[in-house]
Amino acid sequence: MPYIVFIAFFCLGVGLRQGALMDPDTGWHIAAGDYIRAHGLPASDPWSYTAGDAPWYNLSWLFDVVLSLVHGFGGLDAVVVAAALFYALAVAFVCWIAQKSSGSLIASLAVTALAGFVLLPGMLARPQLFTFLLILGFYWVLRFGGARMLLALPVLTALWANVHGGFLAGFVMLGMFFLEALVGGERKRALYLVAAGAACLLALLLNPYGWHILEAASLTMNSALKDVLLEWRPTELTAGSPVWLLVIVFAGVSALFEKSIPLADKLLACFWLAAGLMSARMMQIAALMSAPYLAQALALRLGQSPVGGAIEARDRDYAADLSKAAVRGVLACASVIFVAAAFAPPVQKALAGGEAFVETPASHAPESALAYADGHFPEARLFANYGFGGYILYCCRDVRPVFVDGRADTAYPRKVLEDAIVLGFMDGRGETDEQRAAEWKALTETYGIDGFLASTRSALLGHLMATPGWAKVYEDDDAALFMRAELARAKTKHMAK
């Protein structure tokens, strides 16, 4: 069954490939990977005019290198296919774990489909894709591996510490399985888990920043931008959405007091679902970590239903058919062929029907506005909306310094980020409108800002329209360029000559 799930969700991912570039951070991840490959790991930010000598803790440096290699191989077309590949691998891994946990192919397939659709917004070209696989790998070792398999956890931790700051999730999982062992009276296993946790802590230090990686993770979790970024806000439960359905199913199966379901599975499901409801960026992990519990609970409820016997018989028949070596071989070959074909330019061209296989989303890729700025104000110091920063680093990093971008707290001093909120999100610290306007103006002078590249959907656009001293020199459907009025007049006079 995992092979069928992989093929289905890989095809879904390729079909919805444009969504893989909807994260504005993809650009800076590619830029960082390019820089590391050419110059090594930088100690501080090389691209902004605000970070200064502040240390840059790039928690995803290894992911960035991999992404840079993929981009070098096939451009953004290859990047989106790779995102679909990792997404499909994660969903297939969920299916494998759910089926092994529940013993029911039907229940595991239903739960996997639900998890796959909740996970779909997370199919982005960003390092969370590695965290999806690593957290599932942690679970597999802890649930199905013996004492010797625990030796794999420090290896996974060392890898995790170099691809994404989500490595702390591994320690949460260790804690849940430790509690399960204690409650179950398994003292020997509890000691093994303590030893494994200690080894993971040591393995965590196998990164370019040593113990400072914990400081960097803390900076991210307590980001100055948490209040203004949507992914940090509580999840919105829209009726009929996959997340809404996940919550409904979780409440409906009602099996938290069933002794046949392991304690750690219940704890992980509850913990991550609560975390996902409090912060939207955690909801994809909630879908992954609730799958084992939900599959077991659903299998239990199906078995207790009036048609339980028929369902179990059908389950056995399906499992027997799919377990045949010939069937597994054909499905494995088909999986490889689908992936290889998706990376092939002729296939991509055919899938695109004569159009571009993928395009950078205009919502955070202001190509025309940047081209205008480069042609008319090449030396100007611009402040760009937060969502534009990654794209600027992707295409213009050597000629266009940024004020701030998605690297946020791991690269910029906190004061710079707080000032960016005032400048870009119009969230001043004064008590009156006059005080906030004065603060905004003072910050433009402090940082020597010559112009603003504003999203047409941002509050910044309206503020600039109403603020004297700034002139709109360019606007399209997605971005507008404002320059200091004196610079705009000077340019107009120069062009008139």
Verbal overview:
It is a single chain. The chain is mainly alpha-helical and 497 residues long. It folds into 2 domains: 2-342, no CATH class; 367-496, Rossmann fold (3-Layer(aba) Sandwich). It has 21 helices and 4 strands. A 4-stranded mixed sheet has the order 1-2-4-3, with helices on both faces. Strand 3 (470-475) and strand 4 (479-484) form a beta hairpin. Helix 5 runs antiparallel to helix 6 and helix 6 runs parallel beside helix 8 (187-204). The protein starts with a helix and ends with a helix. The relative contact order is 0.12. The mean pLDDT is 88. This is Glycosyltransferase RgtA/B/C/D-like domain-containing protein. Keywords: Membrane, Transmembrane, Transmembrane helix. The chain crosses the membrane at residues 78-99, 105-125, 132-153, 159-179, 191-211, 239-257, 269-295, 325-344.
Portion of residues in beta strands equals under 5%
SS content category: mainly alpha
Rg calc: 25 Å
The largest sheet has its strands arranged as: 1-2-4-3
Question: Averaging pLDDT over every residue, what do you get?
Answer: 88
**Continuous helix count:** 21
Low-confidence stretches: none
Count of domain modules:
2
Helix fraction by DSSP (H/I, runs of at least 4): 55-70%
The biggest sheet amounts to: 4 strands, mixed
Distance between the termini: 71 Å
What is the β-strand count?
Answer: 4
Q: Topology as H/E string?
A: HHHHHHHHHHHHHHHHEHHHEHEEH
Overall body shape: globular
